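User: I'm writing a tutorial on reading structure tokens. Could you give me a worked example: one chain, its sequence, then its tokens, then a sentence or two explaining what the tokens reveal?
Assistant: Sure. Here is the example chain.
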Amino acid sequence: MDSPKIELITLTPVPARTPSSAVKRKITPSAELSSPKKQVILTPKGLLSDGQIADLGGSSIPNPSRFLLPQLQSIIERRDYHTVSQAHPEPLQLRSEPITSGSKHVILPFNLQTSPESYRDHENRNLLNKIFPGTTAVAFDKICLIFVLKHLPTKPWPHTIAGVPPYLTTDPNDGGPLMSLFKRTGQSRIHLSREIDGRSEGFETVFAILREWFETIKIDMNECQWHGAFVVIVLADTQTSMTDIPRTVAKMPCYYFYEEETSRPTDLPALRKIEPSDAVADDSVYTTLRPGVMVSSERSPSDQSEWLSSSGVLLRHDQSGVEYLTVASHGFPHGKKVFHPKAQGREIGEIVRRLPHTDMALVKLKDGTQYVNETFESPNESAPVRLKGLAKGNETKMGTFLSMETPFMGFIMGTYGCLTRLRVPSDDATQPEQEWRKMRWDYLGQGMGSEVKEGVCGSAMWNEDSKVVGFFHWASAAGFMRDWTLSLPADHLIDAGYSLVLAPGA
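And here are its predicted structure tokens:
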């Protein structure tokens, strides 16, 4: 029997028809400029008809998300052919280059984000083993594809392969970002609430059981992460023994870390600006403001420094009808005035409220200041996104795509992660000393934890339905949550009675 032949098709998306309100950044941040731009599709021969323009919407290529091929039509730059069989073990190439060279997305005949069970197919795994030269093993952890290689390829690496982010390593014992969570488990015979199934009961029920048990036994729990089939608990004291704490809760295994292993900062970073910097960021002046423009605090009386961060979204209080802009509260340590793009620029508003336990502040914009909840048109991605509302954390599926716009990095794409509860000191004298803050961990991609720039705080994050699901809080560059970002879910705003101000046409 003849071995099947596949096509390797290199694509450049056709520019979309953009709305009249579309605006490109005047300055594209260097992080976005250096991002790979092309896409490569691996497909059975003949699936895409001949011609310069490929109509992906009329083909059977899996394309569940506009984040991968947003326009559905792309220009075919070239076609290459390869025989897939055990007798041809060599890696797939585009002529003399690996197919991953300069590719933003490598799209296969199957999509692991929407159909994770397709990983079990032998032919699919055979194809994955041919993506990178020197592949010795491939694994899939429901979030990432882990490739164990003899040597790492030249960067930049693809953002997605088969619909999920890749994780590349030369260490056969490196299980990727999710496996690192399985460091230690309880060694006791304590099994909490064995009569119920936590996977069906949900996070709030499981968290309440754990919180009550740890408070009763007087062991400090700093964080509780919900991963659907297991929980991760962060303990305050390194002297806590694994023999004294639960092995399972509601039939779900418990895994443990200590606070000192989190690399969590005491103070969150905004960009403190005193001297000019060589970093390329978009500090342009915009007449109409939108998510991801640069905003600044008042200058410090002591050294005249200013703090730069990112604008969020425009909200409306459902009861009063008053509109507010969201910003990161810690980015405004000197007074209440908010400027765009920097302190010597125009004053756009004033902070009128800082929401407790959220690091979020609400800004009343000055009369005549225009703000629209429509993103910038990205040079490498899709047309502008008109944001369509707020969504609670449990309304978005783990593993799906999310995005944000920042003046320091431009367009960033990540993967929706797990809900968590984080214990923080209360900043309200009338409330208990400790508060449990709703937060969320999202995965930005391998190495992104150290590449995220200061000042990204406050950036809105939206899902594939163009609904705002949260706001950037902090990215971990080390520790067991390396390359994950902690974000504030939109739940806080929804519960407080706020809704998104829709842009015209949204």
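What the tokens reveal: Helices lie at 30-33, 122-128, 176-179, 198-201, 203-217, 448-451, 491-495. The radius of gyration is 24 Å.
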